Amino acid sequence: MNGDYFFHTSWPIFYQDNHLLVLYKPAGLLVQADESQEISLLELGKIWVKDVYKKPGRVFLGMVHRLDRPVAGVILFCRTSKAAARISGQFRTGTAQKYYLAVLEGELKKESGSIVNFIERRENRSSLVVPEKTRGAQEARLSFNVLDIDRDRTLVGIRLETGRRHQIRVQFAHMGHPVAGDLRYGASAPMPQKQIALFAKELIVDHPVRGEKLRFESPLPCGWPWPKLKEKTCVPWDWRQLEKQLGVNSSLLLVDGY
User: Cys-Cys with 239: which of 26, 83, 121, 219 at CB 3.0–4.6 Å?
Assistant: First the structure.
């Protein structure tokens, strides 16, 4: 194993140093473990760091933002508590810049714009747009640009300005344009592996120690449902595809003391 890839040659590492580890998250893989007991990217990251850097004892890896399980793209972990505190501050204040691509059902009438709603989290793990004065509602903001329209679908570039649960999915569904494949929020049909056509394409942060601006961008997933965007290289879209390439059951990677 070397520092250029994460467990497999088709699984890229976008950046690593003593403070940060920036990875590709495939759709279908949890960022952080939940009650399902399934492996998560955070756990895999700790195992990888322990192995590559020959770390004794337990490994620290701080989670500072999330991606929904059916969403793929760039995600950043911190290797020190100081880095985690400083990067978390950037996400909290909006200094960190998050850019997404999405394929939406239907044709958006506006070429660009901003969307501001108030979102309430529900007990069933969904979210809902609600009136501003609803108790517990949080403001959700994003801006978008239409990149292309084809066959009653719209490709949009999105800058996410806040980080609410399922925010992009909820806000576009509320406009009548759910993300392709997102059955939870009203899409008409699933994607082949239950992914949704929402992709965390780019992340920009300031380095937590050196202060320089860092930009991380992922190639599109193989099979992304906009053929005109096909790139020379692509990354596996679905976690099960990567798990098969690893040649082992991911649960066997879990070890005590990572």
Answer: 26
